[in-house]
Amino acid sequence: MNEITPELEAKIAALEKSIATVNALNIEMFYWWCTALMVAIHAGFLAYEMGASRSKNALASGIKNLLAFAFLVPSFYYIGWWIYNAFPGGIIPGDAGGALPWSANMGPNLGDQASGVFYAAFTLFAATTASIMSGAVIERIRMSGFTILAIILGAVVWILGAAWGWHPAGWLTAQWGLHDTGAAGCVHTVAGFFTLGVLINLGPRMGRYNADGSLNEIPGHNMPMSLIGLMLIVMGFFGFLGGCIIYTPDGWLTIYNTPTTLSAFAFNTLMGVGGGMIGAYLMTRDPFWMMSGALIGVISSAPALDLYYPGLAFLISFFGGLIIPKLNDLIVVKFKIDDAVGAVAVHGGSGIYGLLMAGIFASGYLNVEGPQISFAGQFMSAVVFALLGFVPGYALSWLLKLVGLLRASPGVELAGLDKVEIPAKAYPEAAVPAFDLSPVSPAE
Q: Which of 71, 160, 324, 377 is deepest in the core (most CB within 10 A)?
C-alpha cells in the first residue's frame, strides 16, 4: 500500500480547501442572481400599478412602491432577519445571536459567505409583501400611512409567518407537517389577508359604488403598461422561487431540507404560468385578468412545486385561474371591498387554494422534520397564515385611520394624489400642445 506522504497530505488539504471555496462561491453567486432577478418583481409592480391608476395618481402609485422598497432594506436588516432566526418555535424568542444587526455575520466578515446573500433574498421577499398590498390601495391611501403599513408587514408580520412555517424548524412544519415550498402561505396568504384588513378600514375610492350599491368601473390609464408590468413579475418569480431553494454541494434542497431539483421548479413554474393564464382568460376574456392568471397559477402550484408532476401542476393552476377571478367578484361586488387590482383574491385566495391543493395531492409525503404532509395540517396552517395577516393589518390600519394618517382627504382624492404628494407631473406634455394645428395665413 502506498504511504501517504506529508507532501500528498498537503495537496489533499489544498484540494479540499479549493473545493470548499468553490462551493461557498457558488452559494453566494446563486443567491446574488436570484436577488437581482427578484428586483424585476418590483419593476413589474411599479409598472402595473401605475398603469392601473388614473393618470392623476400614477406617480403617487409608483413612488409608494419605491418608498416601501427603500424603507424595508434597513428595516429588515435591523428587525426582520432576527425575527426569522429567533421565532421558529412560536412567540417566545430563541437564540438568534448571529442574526442580530451587530453580529459579525451581519457585516463584511470574510469567514461568512452566506448571511449577506440570504438576508438580501429575504429582504426582497419582504418588499414583495409590501408591493402586494400596494396595488390594492391605490388612489386614496396617504403616503405616510402606507409606508408605516409596509414596514410592519414586510419587516415584522410576514417574516414571523416565515419563521413558523418556512423554516426547517418552524413549528407549523414540526407539529402539523406544513409543506409550503414556494412560500404561498407565508408571503402571499399573509400579505393578501393583511391587505384585506387594511381595505376594510380604508374604504372604497370615491365614485366606486353608487347609492344602490352597484359597481362603477374605474379603469386605469394605461393597460399596456400594466400588462408589461405583470409579465415582469412573472420573470421575477424565477428569482423568487430560486430563493426558495437551498444550494448545497451535494444537491438542491427545499427550505424543509427535502431533496429537489431545479428541473422540478422549471417544469412546474412554467406549467403554473400557462395553466393560470389559460384558466383566467377563459373565465374573463380580460387581458388584465389573463396576465394576473399567471400569478394565480404560480401561487396555486407553489406549495408543492418540488413534488407535483407537471401535468398536475398545470391542472391545479388552470382551475385556480377559473376560480380566483370569481372570488374577486365576490369580494368587490358582493362585499363592496374596493380592491383596485384584485390583490386579496390573487395572493390571499390563491395562497389558501394552493396550500389546500398540496394537502390533497401531496398528502403522505414526508418533510425532514415533523409529521407527513396532510390536508388537516395544510388547512390549519392556512388559517394561521390568514389570521396572522388579517389581524395586524386590520388593527394597524384602524389606528392609522383614528389619527388621520390612513386616507387622503376627499379634496385631494378628487384632484389626484400626484398634485399633493408628488412635486412632479407624470405627463407634463399633456398640458402643452406638442404642435399647433391652427391654420396659418399666407401673410404669416
A: 324
Report the distance separating Cα 133 and Cα 278, nearest Å: 25
Mean pLDDT for 340-353 is: 98
- Please tell me the distance from the alpha carbon of residue 320 to that of residue 307, in angstroms, as a whole number: 18
**Which residues touch 3 (CB under 8 Å, ≥6 apart)?**
none
- How far is Cα 249 from Cα 25, in angstroms, rounded to an integer? 11
Dihedral sign of CA atoms 242, 120, 393, 289 in order? negative
Q: Which three cell numbers, joined as nine digits, stand for 243?
A: 430563493
The reply to whether 11 falls in a domain is: no
Specify the length of the chain in residues: 444
Q: How confident is the model at residue 30 (pLDDT cuts 50, 70, 90)?
A: confident
Residue 444 lies in a domain: no
Residue 9 maps to a domain? no
Name the grid cell of 214.
352597484
Print the domain residue range for 343.
19-93+112-421
**Cβ(77)–Cβ(101) below 8 Å:** yes
**Number of folded domains that form the chain:** 1
